[in-house]
Amino acid sequence: MAYPLFLLGQVIATGGTMGIGDLSLLNRCLNRHMLGDWLCICEEDAKINSEAVRRDGASCPLILSPLNICKKPGTGIEELAALTVSQG
Q1: Pick from 61, 88, 83: which is nearest to 11 by CA?
Q2: What are the start-end ranges of the E strands in the chain?
Q3: What share of the chain is helix, strand, coil (3-state, %, to 5)?
Q4: Which residues sit opposite 83 in a β-bridge?
Q5: pLDDT-based confidence at 72, cuts 50/70/90?
Q6: 66 and 40 in contact (C-beta within 8 Å)?
Q7: How is residue 72 annotated by DSSP?
């Protein structure tokens, strides 16, 4: 069983994200983000994310996980991004 690298505080989603209507998809995306699966991100940004987790946000307080998803008719949504801002 994998454990999260960090815990989420308050989760905020845009209206467009909630318009997807698939809460299980959104939950899976957040879980992958917390487990360090940086999703569709370049190698350099993945290293920055990993360093931010290792240093508890001291060097870079932002962790980004963009995720390409299938466009749901009527939403115009093709990509989600999970952003975590360290409070530390």
Answers
A1: 83
A2: 62-68, 79-85
A3: 30, 15, 50
A4: 64
A5: low
A6: yes
A7: P
pLDDT tens-digit series, residues 19-49: 877 888 888 888 888 888 876 788 888 888 8
Closest CA to 31 of 65, 4, 57: 4
Residue 70 DSSP label: P
> What is the total residue count of the chain?
88
Residue 81 has pLDDT above 60, yes or no: yes
The burial of 27, by beta-carbon neighbours within 10 Å (0-12 exposed, 13-18 middle, 19 or more buried), is given as exposed
* Residue whose tokens read 């299980």: 24
pTM of the model: 0.72
Average pLDDT in the chain: 76
